[in-house]
């Protein structure tokens, strides 16, 4: 019975990793590639490690597998986020058919400051008020 479970877990893990590789090749830009590979590889590696835990049927191996899977689940999305953020700030363009760019106009390349749109609107309003006061004085 455990052999069948090992085969199923390993096969599913390999399929998820294969789908991640296919998605990596087929996606048109960096951001979509990151999205596809992070999710699929995390699940694929987790399933393969689970099959290893079932195969060895030992508490020490199972505890190590759980620690590794937890580490991968926690670090993979963070790493993907940082790669995507660095890619965006370096000027890597999004795919032309992408619907929205939620960071458009919210990043100041001179100061490397990323803020919400409300902060920029407040700064613009303050600049308008000071310009209006200057024009009133003249």
Automatic annotation (TrEMBL):
InterPro entries: PhaG_MnhG_YufB. GO terms for molecular function: sodium:proton antiporter activity. Keywords: Membrane, Transmembrane, Transmembrane helix. It holds the Pfam family PhaG_MnhG_YufB. The keyword Membrane applies. The keyword Repeat does not apply. Residues 118-128 have a biased composition (Acidic residues). It comes from the Bacteria. The chain crosses the membrane at residues 6-25, 37-56, 62-84. Residues 129-138 have a biased composition (Basic and acidic residues). PANTHER family: ANTIPORTER SUBUNIT MNHG2-RELATED (PTHR34703:SF1). This is Multisubunit sodium/proton antiporter, MrpG subunit. It comes from Mesonia phycicola.
